[in-house]
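Collaborator request, handled under Task 6.
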Amino acid sequence: MWKEEHDVAVASETELYAPVKNYFVTRGYEVRSEVRGCDLVAVHPQETAMTIVEMKRIFTLGLLLQGANRQRTGARVWLAVERNRAKKGAHNQRFHELTALCRRLRLGLMTVTFFKTKAPVVEVWCEPGIALAGTAKEAEAAAAAEAGADYALAAAPIERRARKAAQRLRREFDARSGDYNIGGSTRRKLVTAYRERSLKCALALACHGPSAPRQVRDWTGCANAGTLLRNNVYGWFARVDRGVYRLTPAGAQALREYREVVEANASRLAWAADWEAALEKISETAPSP
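Structure tokens returned to the collaborator:
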């Protein structure tokens, strides 16, 4: 059957993102891409542990090491690669052996096959488990999980540094209002929680004009609005008086460049209903920074 459908190779690992994301979304997960370096992070309301997916076009040692490193956060970790059955003899097509290896390391493995005439097909070769650590207590916890015990109760203890990494990962995930990136992206500006908060501040200045940080904080709900305006990491804000900031032309351009993010936030803020008209007006009169 696969010969009739004509497997096709992908040009970039970013093409894996949509079908992998769809796999988790259809199973009730909320998904974000490029979260603190992870290609895909998913959260399910009935699961305590987060899910991480790392994607590559082919199965490599680097991908395996990356997956093992992600396990330190206590997440359930998947590896996702392309499967192109037209490539005879390629080492990354030995999926039965790779599956055995992933099972030993308690990593999940899935493949994505692309076709000319139908939607991509996602195949699950093995589900992720809990990474075994060096102590008997941790091994016992992992064994209990495999036996069907509650995952949250059986999860092996996470060292202090790794626990902090897991907390940072979750905070970044929760701080984003939507999924605005493509997993596996390189050489493109990512919409991080910090950038999204900065865009909300820029949106407030576009709609209200030069304002004090406390006003921007109240309008946007960004507790650190003052820090964002003062630090001015992206060059979007300019100080016009003591404790008063305005939007720069670069900030106005950013609101256009990240339109999807701005529209999503504007829809939740009553004062931002006419943000595009306000942006046009300020763009006509704004001085250079």
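The cover message to the collaborator said: "Residues 160-175 form the longest helix (16 residues). The radius of gyration is 23 Å. Please let us know whether this matches your experimental observations."
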